[in-house]
Design brief:
Elements: H1 11-19, E1 22-27, E2 31-37, H2 45-57, E3 67-73
Parallel strand pairs: 2-3
Antiparallel strand pairs: 1-2
C-alpha cells in the first residue's frame, strides 16, 4: 500500500472502506472509465484521490487492451 500512500495508514480499514464504495463504469472501444461516487464526508477522500492519481499514472489496460481510468464523482461539486 505504500506504493499509493505516502503516509502510514491502517491498510485493512482503508481497503474495507474502498471496497464498500458505489460506482459505475463507462466502456468504449478504447477505454474503460470507472466512476466512483463519493460522499462529501468520506473519511479517506484524500487518500483515495492519491490512489486514483497513482493508478491513472500507471496507464493500466484490460485484457482487451483498453485503457482503464478511475475518476471520483463528488455530488454537489459541479
Amino acid at each position: 500500500m505504500l506504493v499509493f500512500f505516502s503516509q502510514h495508514i491502517d491498510v485493512y480499514n482503508v481497503i474495507d472502506s474502498i471496497l464498500n464504495l458505489k460506482g459505475s463504469d463507462v466502456t468504449s472501444k478504447h477505454e474503460i472509465t470507472v466512476n466512483l461516487l463519493i460522499d462529501d464526508g468520506y473519511d479517506n477522500l484524500a487518500m483515495l484521490q492519491e490512489a486514483v492519481e497513482a493508478l491513472n499514472r500507471m496507464f493500466l489496460r484490460d485484457e482487451q487492451g483498453r485503457l482503464v481510468k478511475v475518476s471520483l464523482i463528488l455530488p454537489g461539486r459541479g
